[in-house]
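Exercise: predict the fold of this chain.
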Amino acid sequence: MNNEVKNRTRAQRISDNQMEIRKRLWPEIVDEMLWNRKKEKGFTTIPRTMPYILKIMDEIASPIKVSGAYFALWCYVFDESFVTITNPSQMALEAGFSGQRAVTTWRDRMKKLQELKFIDAKSGSSGPYHYVLIFNPFNVIETHRKNGNIVSETTINVFFERAIAIGALEPYE
């Protein structure tokens, strides 16, 4: 049996087990009441380690919180790892900023993300962050770890543990 068949079988087994548990705990729930990423439009794929990625980037950027801006970007990205931002005001709002300084605050967060090498950007008609490239956060975090920029040893260790558990990284030494 090849790995693809084996993984699909394992994935199906996990899904079947989860459905059985859900049906026992919430027998009154019908599928139409829930979000199904395979049936609904307007979804994106995120790493299962995203909570750790966001926490780590906020620790590195401290005292600035950059995770809201990063997550808003991620919600626009496709497989090209590239986003075209035509409305900075909307991005600022989606990143959690409002009021007169919303776009300025958002641009400050984008600048910090670029300085930390989580993204790169090129200017265009909507300003300095019209075109945004999103780098692999695992690689960026590993570079920061090697350079001694990780604030919490516990956070980075738990991040690696989770990444290894889901098969995103080989066990590290």
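Check your answer against the key: The chain has two domains: 3-33, 44-173.
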